[in-house]
């Protein structure tokens, strides 16, 4: 299992746990909703967190969305 404290959006210092909490708190379900929200901005600086991941490791926002939808986070 992936460490939930792994930073996904490094530019905004958001971990997997932070993004999952934002999704659940604000009832966000899609990438578009997450990127448009103003409560916990993400994907608005370098955008690596949307595609390949900051470390080019594939740990990105779409992966977190999938994990939340599957109930893994």
Structural features, described:
This is BFD-like [2Fe-2S]-binding domain-containing protein. With 73 residues, the chain is mainly α. The chain has one domain (7-69). 36% of the residues lie in helices and 7% in strands. The chain is built from three helices and two strands. Strands 1-2 form a two-stranded antiparallel ribbon. The radius of gyration is 11 Å and the shape is globular. The model has no long low-confidence stretch (mean pLDDT 93).
Name its key features:
mainly alpha, 2 strands, BFD-like [2Fe-2S]-binding domain-containing protein, globular, 73 residues, single chain
Judged by helices, strands and strand pairing, the structural class is mainly alpha
Note the overall shape.
globular
**N-to-C CA distance:** 11 Å
Gyration radius, rounded? 11 Å
Tell me the domain tally.
1
Largest sheet, spatial ordering of strands: 1-2
Poorly predicted regions are: none
Number of helices: 3
Protein name: BFD-like [2Fe-2S]-binding domain-containing protein
Task: Reconstruct the topology from this structure.
Layout: E1 7-9, E2 14-15, H1 16-26, H2 31-36, H3 61-69
Antiparallel strand pairs: 1-2
Helix pairs in contact: 1-3
Condensed summary:
The protein has 73 residues and is mainly alpha-helical.
């Amino acid at each position: 299992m992936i460490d939930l404290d792994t930073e996904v959006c490094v530019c905004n210092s958001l971990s997997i746990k932070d993004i999952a909490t934002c999704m659940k708190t604000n009832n966000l379900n899609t990438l578009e909703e997450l990127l448009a929200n103003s409560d916990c901005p993400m994907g608005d600086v370098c955008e690596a967190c949307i595609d390949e991941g900051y470390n080019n490791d594939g740990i990105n926002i779409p992966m977190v969305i999938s994990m939340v939808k599957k109930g893994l986070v």
